[in-house]
Structures are given as C-alpha cells and as structure tokens.
Amino acid sequence: MSDLLTCQEYKAVAASLTPASMSFIDGVFRPASDGATIAVTNPATGEVIAQIAACTKDDVDFAVQKARSAFEEGCWSRIHPSERKKVLLKLCDLIEKNALELAVLESIDSGKPIRDCVEIDIPEVIHTLSWHAELIDKVYDQTAPVGTDAIAMVVREPVGVVGAVLPWNFPILMLAWKISPALAAGCSMVVKPAAQTSLTAIRVAELAFEAGVPAGVLNVVTGSGSVVGEAIGSHMDVDMVAFTGSTATGRRFLHYSADSNIKEVVLELGGKNPCIVLDDAENLDQVAEQVVAAAFWNMGENCSAGSRLIVQAGIKDQLLERVVAHASGWKTGDPLDPQNHLGALIDKGHFSKVCSYLEMGKEDGHDLILGGESVDGTYVLPTIFDNVKNSDRLAKEEIFGPVLSVITVNSYSEAIAVANDTEYGLAASVFTANAKKALRAAQSVRAGTVTVNCFGEGDVSTPFGGYKQSGFGGRDKSVHAHDQYTQLKTIWIDLSDDAVDG
Ligand code: NAP
Ligand code: MG
Asked: Which of 329, 366, 402, 469 is the most exposed place for a label (fewest CB within 10 A)?
C-alpha cells in the first residue's frame, strides 16, 4: 500500500482529467464520420465523463485503408526489429511517466479499484509491452532439412492489418496483450475498445504516436460492437482479428471471417473455472486467501475467475470458515478509495444481470453463506452460495460478478469429473499436498492454464488461452502470441546440379 495515494488525492487527479474521446486514426483525433457520440459514464457515480465518437463503417474503412498503406509502405513493418523495439520501449517510458493519470482514468472509466489499476494493471501493461519489445530482435527463423540440393528457409512475416476487438473488464491490459506482440511483429492495427471503456486505449494510441509509432500503424476506432466490431470482423482487407470477450460474440467473428475474406481469428472467451481443493491441502489459510482472490478479484469480472469451488467433503467446513473470514476483509465501495478491493460493476445492465443470479441462488434454495446483496447503484458484495450442484445454472453460466458457488465432492476422481463438466476450459486451480495428485490433475483438467496450490494466470512468459468454448485459434502472451501475428513463408532456393551448372 505504500505507493498508494489517498482517496482525496485520487479524486483530485480524476477531477483534473479531460480525457481525449475521439477516435485516433492515422495519427490524428477524429470525430465519427456522422458526428455521432456515445456518452461514457463512471460506473461508480453515474456521472458522464466523456462522449466518445460513435464511429461508422466508413470510419473503419478509412482506418483500415490507413493501416494498410502504412503496412505496405514499410515504415513499421519492414524496419529493423531493434528499431521497433526502441520505439516500443519509449512507449513504456511514456506510460510509466503517465502512470497515475492512466490508472485513475482506467478506474473512473471501468469501476475497477484504483489499488489494482496502480499496482497490477499499469505495471503489467509496461511489463507486457517491454517483454514483447525485447523479444522481437532475438527470435530466429528456420531452415528446413531438405538436403544439399536446395536451401529451404521458413521465415515469419507480419500478418498485415490486425483488427483487435476488446472487452471492458481489463481495458488497458487487454489492449497491451494484443498490441504488444502485434506491433513488435510489425503489423498495423485497427483497435476497437469496448464502448464502456475506450479512454485508456485512446490515450495509449496517442502516447504510441508520440513515442514514434508511425501514423496509421496503431489506430483506435471507438464505437459499438454491432457497428465498428462487425465492420472490422467482416472487412475484406483485415488479415487477422484478435478478440477477447464473450463466447457468443466470439462465435460471430468466426461467421464474419467465413462470410468475408477467411481472415485469421483468435478468440479469448469466457470461463467457469474450477478451484479444486482436495482434503490433503496444506495451510488452509493460504488456500482460502487464494480462493477469495480467484473468486472476487476485479469484482469477478474476470474470464479466469475461479467461480466454482470444488471442495472435498472432509475439509469443507474448515475451508469455508476461512474463506468467509478472508472474503469479509475484502471491502467493497468507491473505486478511488485505495482501501477497497472491490469497486463498481461495469454498468447498470451488467449489474442487473449479476443481481438476477443472486435472486436465482436464493430462490433455488442454495445456502447463502456470504453477501448476496447489492449496495448503492452498481456495487455487489462478495457472495458465496454453498451446496450448489454442478448442473445448477449458478455453476454452469459465466456470471462475471463476485459470486462463488461451492460444490462438494467425495473423491479426487469426482473432483476432476465435476471440474471438466463444463463447456468452458480457460483456467483451473488445484490445491493438494500430494504431488502425484497435483500433476495428474494438471494433466486431466481440460483448461489452458492449470495452477497448483495458487490461483493465477502465469505471467507474460506463459501462454494464455482456452480449451473448448473458452478460446480459438491461438494464445495471448509469451513467444506463442507472436505466432498469431505472423505468417509462415517458405522460400525455396534451388541448388541442384542443373541449377548450378546451367
Ligand atoms: P461482448 O459482447 O463479448 O463484448 C466484447 C467486445 O465485442 C466489445 O468491444 C463489444 O463492443 C464487441 N461486440 C459486441 N457485439 C459485437 C458484434 N455483434 N460484432 C462485433 N463485435 C461486437 O461482451 P459484453 O456484452 O460486453 O459482456 C457480456 C458478457 O460477456 C459478460 O457478462 C461476460 O460474461 C462476458 N465477457 C467476457 C470477457 C472475457 O474476458 N472473457 C470480457 C467481457 C465480457 P461493445 O460492447 O462496445 O458494443
Ligand atoms: Mg465507463
């Protein structure tokens, strides 16, 4: 907490901000082609903090055209990788210099707790950008084992114009997960942030331009998914789309691609992630701390949230007592107050959706052992329902709020079966002192990330993405993220005797 300011100080910063709210295309701020705007509210106060441009299909066409020209011209795509590295590291410096402004902007735009924005999101953005920047002048291409009559080079080339369509739950961090490997690889981009949370993306695009990313390389086109998102997904001159959001919208991008130019599509989607606690788990206090972080971090508005606690009967009571105690220490309230661990949910619509699950849990007769209430506007207290069956809607559907369902099992095998009984497969955690059970569980749970004796998403060096309906086509983070922003080209050079003698 030492680096954190006071709530009053954060409020003063918030009051001093006049966020840029137009789209940023070809190095210039632009209104929508028809001048339309969308009001952006601070979810915590209901106050309108900006009017973003409600861009049109024409705006997307214009941005894609600029992105294409920049790509073809080679001002970014064909410069030495170490030059791109230098510019991206400069961008990291600028983000660092503006970290306070960005953290406060993120908090008032999304309702996220300022402590997370300051301590997690902004540092992770810098880390992600610098990691991919540092990587890009250290990756080698290959030659294939084709004998002495030819040389076959297998080279990676930037995929071209990348569309990125982003969610509202980690606005600036998801932006960083997409732009870092794509820009490092040499792609040009057209980014659509979620309409609720576009402000930090616009600011980062402006800072990137200041750092030296050429005009047209990183464009942010604001507006609604049904207009701007669809126009990007369906565009004949976008080579690849990277999307994070719901499975339902992700599915649309596969249709857009199939019905347009067969662009590459990479989807990071929802989850209903299991936290398995076996009865030999050690240090239940620490386990409880992790279970609480898994369920309630970012108000549960997290695709990798551990929203199903699958616990073996023998230790259930001891564990739940500690989980309730830890969760009770997680305060909910004003996102700009650094004491608070939970801020406001993203908007009234989503708040109503989460509240409907609270009602469902009560009506279905599950044992409410914590929370179950909303306060002032868009806050929902950490909520735990016990004695939930895995077939209940509470345990099946992605709630995307601070709601934990507890499912009791009697054996290791039952725990694994229940963990896998879901259409999702993004992340899972297992807590046990038995190394064989831990490794066997890690092998058996069908999820893109399995953490043992902790909750987490690994770090920037590890790939992140989903099995089953949690993902498609690739991974964010790590060296593997570069695969989706590059294409393989084979260059075959004939060295046969005919070629040499002739
Ligand atoms: P969403 O619809 O998947 O939104 C994600 C992005 O897709 C936004 O930028 C959105 O634009 C855009 N979009 C929406 N409809 C589109 C369309 N027809 N064509 C192209 N793009 C489109 O998510 P949401 O509606 O904000 O949230 C709904 C639920 O999705 C949540 O309750 C949660 O369960 C889940 N969700 C998951 C994640 C995740 O990280 N896995 C993130 C966010 C939400 P606009 O919203 O600006 O119109
Ligand atoms: Mg907002």
From this structure: 329
* Number of residues assigned to the chain: 502
Question: Do the first three CATH levels of 7-269 and 274-452 match, i.e. the same topology?
Answer: no
CATH number for region 274-452: 3.40.309.10
The active-site residue, picked from 230, 268, 289, 398, is 268
CA distance to 10, 31, 306, 356, 359, per residue, from 371 (Å): 28, 44, 17, 14, 12
- Residue 316 CB: number of other CB atoms within 10 A? 17
For residue range 176-218, list pLDDT tens digits in order: 999 999 999 999 999 999 999 999 999 999 999 999 999 999 9
Residue 178, judged by CB atoms within 10 A of its CB (0-12, 13-18, 19+), counts as buried
Question: Contact at 8 Å (CB) between 114 and 62?
Answer: no
pTM: 0.98
Domain boundaries, the chain: 7-269, 274-452
Ligand 1 site residues (CB inside 6 A) read 165-169, 192, 194-195, 224-226, 229-230, 233, 244-246, 249, 252, 269-270, 303, 350, 398, 400
For the segment 450-493, what is each residue's pLDDT rounded down to a tens digit? 999 999 988 999 999 999 999 999 999 999 999 999 999 999 99
359 is catalytic: no
The residue whose CA has the least distance to atom 35 of ligand 1 is 246
How far is residue 158's CA from residue 185's CA, in Å, rounded to a whole number? 6
Q: Is 303 a catalytic residue?
A: yes
Q: Which atom of ligand 1 is nearest to the CA of 269?
A: 41
